[in-house]
User: What shape does this take?
Amino acid sequence: MQTKTILLLIGLLVLAGGLFFVFQVSFGGSDVFNSSVIDRIARAIARAEGFYVKNSRASRNHNPGNLTMDLTGKSIGKDASFVRYATDEDGFENLRKQIWKFWGGSNYYNPSMTISEVSRVWTATVNEQAAWASTVANDLGVTTDTQIGQIV
Assistant: This one.
């Protein structure tokens, strides 16, 4: 083969690999991305929602994000508008699925939103927004002005 053909093939392979990575990150296919970023955000949200406080609603319901929608099909009922799960892992699975939607598939969230902007959608009242955003940001080691898509 000629040198130009080989270089063209290498370039196409590199481009295809880059596109595959973007697709994986954007649409939820990367286990490395999932375990590192999504889990960190999930733990930070769980802390902001009071999940780690004994007998809190999030703890009792095994729902670390205090979510009102079940994306897993594993809910065992409701506590007012909040979904209940049998295990913490089921609740974290639902929270991780919700966080994945930040990168596509959400009508409310996108990766360019700051933590403060997310708090305005995630929390129920204005009084909760600043505390929630601060807790999530502190847990992640960033500021409340950090965009979700910039968290590593």
Residues 31-150 form one domain. The CA atoms of residues 10 and 16 lie 10 Å apart.
